[in-house]
Structures are given as structure tokens and as C-alpha cells.
Amino acid sequence: MNASWCIGARLLAALSWLGLASCAREEAARPPAARVERAAAAGVGAVRDAAAPPGAARPAAAAAPEFQTLVAGLSVLVDERSDAEGQKHEWIVTRIDLRQHRLQVRALGASPFERLRGDGGLLVGVNGGFFDPNLQASGLLLSDGSLLARERSGGGSGVLAVANGRARLLKRGEALPAGTDFSVQCGPRLIEAGGAIGIRSDDGQRAARTAACIRDAGRELDLVVTLHKGRRGAGPGLLQLAQWLTEPLARGEPSGCDAALNLDGGPSTGIVVAGSPELERLPLGPVPFALVVAR
Question: Which of 72, 127, 130, 260 could, after both became Cys, cross-link 138 (CB 3.0–4.6 A)?
Fold first, then answer.
């Protein structure tokens, strides 16, 4: 690679890192309840005509989006959410049965994120974990039981750990469970273990987001990607995202996440789903590693 390309990549990484640093601040107390509206997916749901005469036929309401199976133990939901300001956001959720699939880290270095689409062993990949301007991990990374980067104070307030087919959200500094084969440090903790919202207030920052949602006592893990529908790199605030994650993620579910961790956001947000190019969303800058589900 030539020198000018390297300088450009490092500048993009620096901008990404600086923009995300403010998103990584931990907010420790539960916020006051706020009204959150959820929009139906584009083209889903019929508008009822209040002026229609009695007995007139009304259009049937379309079913809310549901998870669609990609392979056994892995499914995807595509929906739309409207925030408290009326802004619309894409809402893409990949649900993983951790008894059937393992999370791994793919090192990309300075390679483009779209390289993942040519990885024949990959089912889904998202960005996750903070990094510095030199494209080095800012916190703990563990994959297939191998330590890729050590925990650091600036790497985020939380650690997502998977051990023996179950996910847990830990605070920075907590010991990893025995048998942990995957972990990533990031933050903030959007929903604390136990269900309390971990964000105190709206900090005014708006950015695309990637988050991990733990469900079913850790047996299920949802990777959530949400982006503004009209502005690349934009998205909801952290408080808004945390509130959404306390709600059911799909029709018929009794509750939201047991715990949730912000994995990164802004220009780093990206997702690739094997065989589904329509779900591909590419980061705006370099992303040195991805969290993936392999075949």
C-alpha cells in the first residue's frame, strides 16, 4: 500500500475513534421513564380511516415483522423504529442461539469491512469493540479462547463474555467465567445485568449504533444494528437505544434484553449477512476487527 493511502486510513480511523470516545462514557443511574414510539416497518401496517361509515370494510392490518431463519439457530429481523424526536431508524437484529453457534473475532487490520462478504465461512459479521488511531484494540478481545488484546481502563465499562454456550455482561475488572472462549470489552453498559437501564440521561450525541443484547438467561444473543434512515453514520442516542432494548424486540415476545452492551457506533457501524446483500451496511471508515458467527 502507498504512503498516502496509509495516511488517509489513519486519519479516518482517528476521526472514527475521536467521534466514538464521547459515546463510550458510562452513565450510571436509571433515567426517568420516557415515552418511546415504535414505528411499523416500511409498508407494514394499515391506516384505519376514522371517518369510514359503520359496516364499511377496513383494510386488514399487516403482521408485524418477525424473525426469519437464516440457518438453524440463527435468524434475522428487519424493522423500523421512530425515536422520541420523530426520526426514523433502521432496526436490524441478528439472533444467535449460543448452544448452536459460536462468536469469533475476525482481524481485518486495514482491509475494508466488505472483505467479510467474500468470507465463505461467515454467516454474519458486525463491528464491535473500540480501537485507537493505529487500528489497535482499545480493550479486551478474546476469540476461540485465545487472547488477542488485554483489558484496558479506556476500553469501555463493560465486557461481553461467552462461556459454555452462555453470554454474560460483566463490569470492567470482573473475572471472566471459567470456560470463556469469547469476550469483547466496550461500553457503555446500556442495560445492567438485572435489567436496570445503565444510562443516566440523553447526552445529545446521535450516531449509528451496534449493540449486544443478552436474552433467555444468556442462551440467546442478539446483535442489534440501528442507523438513521436518511443520514449515513447518524442514528439514535444511547438513552433512546437503551430504552428500545428494554422493550420486546419482536412481536409476541414478553420482554426485552436481560442485559445489553454498546459495541461501538458512528462511522464504524457495519453489518454483513451471508446471502443477504440487501442487509449489508458498510462502515464509513476502517474497522480493524469484526465480531462474527462462523459456519
Answer: 130
Measured distance CA(228)–CA(88) in Å, rounded: 6
* 3-class state of residue 116 by DSSP: helix
Angle formed at CA 24 by CA 20 and CA 25, multiple of 5 degrees: 130
> Cα dihedral sign for 87, 131, 92, 33?
negative
Tens of pLDDT, residue by residue over 204-261, are: 999 999 999 999 999 999 999 999 999 999 999 999 999 999 999 888 888 999 999 9
Model-wide pTM > 0.85: no
Question: How far does CA 226 lie from the centroid of its chain?
Answer: 7
In this structure, are residues 110 and 133 in contact, taking their beta carbons and an 8 Å threshold?
no
Where in the chain are the domains?
3-27+64-294
**For the chain, how big is the Rg over CA atoms in Å?**
19
User: What are the distances in angstroms from CA 295 to CA 62, 119, 273?
Assistant: 34, 10, 12
- As given in the structure block, the three cell numbers for residue 222 are 442478539
